[in-house]
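Issue: copy button drops trailing tokens. Both records pasted manually instead:
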Amino acid sequence: MKIVAIADVERASLTTGFDPERMRGVNMILSCGDLPARYLEYVVTMANIPLLYVPGNHDTAYWRHAPEGCDNIDGKIVEVDGVRIMGLGGSQKYNDRVYGFSEQEMRRRAIRLAFQAKLTGGVDIVVTHTPPLGYGDLEDFPHQGFDAFNTIMELLHPLYLVHGHVHMEYGRIPRVIDHPSGTKIVNAYGTYTLDL
């Protein structure tokens, strides 16, 4: 299965320069947040394949206008073509204007889903907005990851954890990191293609 993950910045290759041939063989699109609803609507319309998303810290406008034709998987486990996917959106809550959580709040959300996953066959991919603490995150509080995501990987051993939030231009940001659990952590900033 071929999956395109997107996050944080709009890519011309998916809008004005959209080429259907580039999407040939792609089965699904995963959005890791901080993308306008209209952009996701355009992408899902042109690609004509499932687009699943979690909201990023700047996606509070989704509460007024959710991306039409796309599936919000925040706080859910879904299955598409035999691939099981868990979604956890948001970032550290660094002010009241962002979609964010404290570490304790995210841990409660994550553990509830992890137990559900354990009882129903696990997950192949975890889609988050922020990275796990210590793996591709930054030292400043708004860009720190959640330790709860490390716990999920240790409990479930998904193939991938795909996130956004940390922009590549912020510095020497690794695109792919191997976690001790065996999970590959992927920063989907812009676009990134996964092959399962």
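Record 2 (pasted manually too):
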Amino acid sequence: MSESLTEQRRQTLVRFEKLIGVHFNDIELLNTALTHTSYANEMDRQVPDNEKLEFLGDAVLELSSSTYLYSHFTDFSEGELTRTRASIVCQDTLSKLARKLNMGKIILLGHGEESNGGRERDSTLEDAFEAVIGAIYLDQGWEVARDYVIRQLAPEFENVKEGVNRSDYKTVLQEIVQQMPPSVLTYVEISVNGPDHNRVYEYAVDIDGKIYGSGIGKSKKSAEQMAAKETLKILSLK
């Protein structure tokens, strides 16, 4: 048994199982999914962290959402499907869903990360959400993991079906700038930090040489999306 899986911790995870509607055969997997790298580092790596499960969960999440969109949005073009998936499967949505499940309260964090607000950090919550999906997939298989993803994302999909605007922020911003010729929109790299397997990117929007919103993400694409979203807020267009 992992050093972090005390009886009290086990009871916390059992309550979380009931909340998400998935009973684990190996509750250690769920514990790992909710263990941040900062905690593992403080324990001298005597306990595993959730990075690999996050990697796996991200793939399951993308395939699950793609399958759902393909089956339920039959009148959408490939481009519309891609933009819809990007607007739903993003840090904003995943961190919001993690908060609804109170993941921030039960993630194991190192002392430094916790004192710096890690429990409320969007990237930490997004990672935990994806890692739980990865854990479900390993423990229960594809169908259970897919069904869990769809249950969590169902309200977001329904918003799209009902016409609620869940736009790809980059596309929206690009369309706006195209209506203001000869304005030129570019994305500028501000910084890239972290090890190769866990990069954190920061990008900013540049319109005609003026910097507007900036954004941080685990990929160039997500950082640009966040920068576009912030720019739309600055322009009072979103």
